[in-house]
Specification:
Elements lengths: L12 E3 L9 E7 L2 E6 L3 E6 L6 E3 L10
Antiparallel strand pairs: 1-2, 1-5, 2-3, 3-4
């Protein structure tokens, strides 16, 4: 199986394709097929890269804030 999120690096902004209600998330780490993302409206989530391909966000109109 392929790592659907191999190109994602810490600091990049993403959206979950099946959970738009979580808002934009910032990649915290990407190690061995486990992607940790801190979502504005949901908090920190670990995603299996072999199951879910995240959607990169290149400009969401605002800066990301951790709190």
């Amino acid at each position: 199986m392929d790592d659907l999120n191999a190109m994602l690096t810490p600091g990049m902004l993403v959206r979950h394709p099946n959970r738009p209600d979580w808002g934009v998330g910032q990649v915290q780490s990407n190690i061995n097929g486990k992607l940790t993302v801190n979502f504005r409206d949901e908090g920190k989530i670990v995603i299996e890269s072999f199951r879910i391909g995240m959607l990169p966000v290149f400009d969401d109109g605002s800066s990301f804030s951790n709190g």
